[in-house]
Design goal:
Number of helices: 4
Order of helices and strands: HHHH
Radius of gyration: 23 Å
Shape: flat
Number of strands: 0
Oligomer: single chain
């Protein structure tokens, strides 16, 4: 048998619940956007094609899955660690500018390669 208090919950307990809900919502927002972005970026790329071919040739799909999954987790971990390291040393605006500059550079190189075939 429990006794409930007729008093409304204290503001600190309401804030704690609200903070936990926001934290949970933030987790799912970041997780979901990361999953969708990486999933769509990886569809049909050279890693997926290579994994498909290795699975077909080896006749050991689960071993290929474990190897490919471990490799993808490792490269993702490297990206996260490098991202955290950069975030502590470089401003977000500088990171955005650097990423944009690199993407423009890649685009120019690809277009140059197409034009000069």
């Amino acid at each position: 048998m429990s006794i409930s208090s007729p008093l409304p919950p204290s503001s600190s307990s309401v804030e704690a619940k609200s903070s936990a809900t926001l934290s949970r919502a933030a987790f799912w927002r970041v997780f979901g956007s990361t999953f969708v972005t990486i999933f769509l970026a990886e569809l049909g790329d050279k890693t997926q094609v290579t994994t498909l071919l290795m699975s077909a040739q080896s006749q050991a799909p689960w071993i290929v899955f474990l190897g490919a999954g471990t490799a993808l987790i490792t490269t993702s971990l490297m990206g996260v660690l490098l991202g955290q390291w950069l975030a502590r040393r470089v401003s977000p605006a500088t990171l955005d500018t650097a990423a944009g500059t690199m993407l423009i550079g890649i685009t120019v190189c690809l277009l140059w390669d197409i034009v000069h075939l």
